[in-house]
Amino acid sequence: MTDLSAELDRNQDPRRWFALVVIAIASLMVVLDASIVNIALPKAQADLHISFANRQWVVTAYTLTFGGLLLLGGRIADYAGRKRVFIIGLIGFAAASALGGAAPDQALLFAARGLQGAFGAILAPAALSLISVTFTDSKERARAFGVYGAISGVGAAIGLIVGGLLTQYLSWRWCLFVNVPMALIAVVLAIPNIRESKLSGKTKYDVPGALLSTVGFVAIVYGINEAATPGHGWSSSITIACLVVGTVLLVGFVAFEAKAKNPLLPLRVVLDRVRGGSLLSQFFTASGLFGMFLFLTYYFQEVHGYSPIRAGFAFLPFSIGIIVSATATSNLLPKVGPRPLGVIGSVMSAAGLLYLSFIKADSSYVGSILPAMIIMSLGLGLVFVTIASTALFNVRHDESGVASAVLNTAQQIGGSLGTAIFNTIAISATAAYAASHMIHATTTTASASAEAATYGFTVAFKIGAACLAVAAVIFGTFVNVDRHHLAQHDDVTEEEIAA
Question: Which of 173-187, 207-221, 425-439 has the highest mean pLDDT?
Fold first, then answer.
């Protein structure tokens, strides 16, 4: 036994813990970017004269390309070399961040955010794979994945606070510029500390599949965005054309994947009842949730006049609630099973968002916002842990990496569509409220305009709550596994999930 342990020690990468530091820096950068920009968005919108209809592109340009290219990015990393792709992703992410921070207009900012998402889509799976191949001892690998999970858990909270600090004391542009030194430090440290690794053999990349799905979703989001543009609406020719083209492309994606020899997404992965239900639940959860962050950011800063740093701290209880709930759920899951936890969590999240939909322009944070945040966050902690377990239930060993990536993709695409749809709904509801109350931007008080904007937010919150309720129904109906089934499925390792 001693000789075997010595042999294992000799095979371990002596610089593996330095490598984990590098991977942690890169992972933190990607996680931060998802939340840090939200706090900066009101200032960026004012500075670049972004319309209310177009503001959602700052979020969705990133999430669409990230989610749409994530599956392709994982395969590229595996076969082209994980270290090489990791470094390319870092450099590309830094360049895209610098471009966005220096953007003189909204078009370049949106393009830069899209580039960030594209490079993030190869960076994130490469980082996960590197952890798996660098740590060959199961206990050390578990510890490394624990560090990675902790970064994902606290990164969003850190991003909100750092975003507030940078926006308030420097400029919203530094919420993008901050990625440049982080990425460059990671590149310098990666070269000597990370070993190259890749799968043997040749593979064909499903580029047509990636293009069909990504362009299809972009067309749909663009059509939804056009519906909120003054003079267009849902019946305009450009709105209808974009929605039709997007739908045709997505149908074409499904047809192509069904016949492709090396499909980006093997359809059997999503057609399984339990996995399909988990992915649909993730999609609707993200749809209802992502818009909430966007509208609360504007509610805090534009309606209540919070500074960016105060707005960042206002979100802190939400992040803490998710961390606490997720930790407790990890212990409850083997004892209770996924179905009751997932359903209860989704119902709690829906109830919290519905509670939030009753806010007024003069509502207090402690009485109206904080209770809703606590209920939602505790519910979402239940949801995230249970969906992560059931989305990989009974998956083939050689498809566990694909199933894990699809779960992330469902979250990003759901969030993209939800943000676009709810932004359009909020703008339309605000305009309808202003018209019915004869509120005009040039002749009415700021309080009246704030009431109209808040009304638009609350309408979006109600529909978001409905999405979370739909997620509860889907999870309870399709995810028909209990704790006994879950206990029997203990053969998918972290290495397979990260592959």
Answer: 173-187
